[in-house]
Amino acid sequence: MSFLSESEKARLITKINEAESRTHAEIVTVIAQQSDGYRYIPILWAALLALSVPGLYYAWLNFYASGWLPAEETLSHTYWLYPIQVLVFLGLGMVFQIPKARLWMIPASVKRQRAARHAREQFFLQNLHQTRGRTGVLIFVSVAEHYVEIIVDSAIAEVVDNSLWEATVQEFIEHISKNEIAAGFENTIEHCREVLWEHFPAPDGRPDELPNHLIEV
């Protein structure tokens, strides 16, 4: 699935080329549909809910009959507990595989952790850690997790306060909330250009080390 049109991608390439034209830094943009499959959590929830069936049944039985049902009747009821548990597990397991349902049950902290890990993986996979002068900049978006992060290499981190990047990320999030992903990327690249031209100028430019197009993963 592509989140930007071809014309939007072309404008993004132009913005990156412009931003890098007078700096030693390298800017890479990455957008991910989702940062993790989260396969185990839906199964875990289905198993826990299935295991809770006997407890819920006996709680209801105690409330309904105050514990005075004949032993034979209670025993006959329990024969159905295991098949019901299996059906609950299988049924919920299938429902929880629906992407929206799966993401809904994932704790926000887990989604942030997975997206942050994915961002760092992309920083290394895109070779941003190997730029001359350690001046790589990653602009990372993970759509399913509603996650945006800017990761910079050590040379930039030493001279640019992180609060500037945090403010830029907040602006990007505002654009995404309005379904303006392309505008968010362009605005962020413009902020990067201002910072990089000031702190890492290269008046004569230099050859590109890394791709200037949007990378979709």
From TrEMBL:
Report if keyword Transmembrane helix is assigned. Answer: yes
**Which parts of the sequence belong to the TPM domain?**
116-192
The name this protein carries in UniProt is TPM domain-containing protein
Per the UniProt record, which residue ranges are transmembrane?
40-60, 80-98
UniProt keywords (A-Z) are:
Membrane, Transmembrane, Transmembrane helix
Give the domain of life. Answer: Bacteria
Q: Which organism is it from?
A: Granulosicoccus antarcticus IMCC3135
Q: List, alphabetically, the InterPro entries matched.
A: TPM_dom
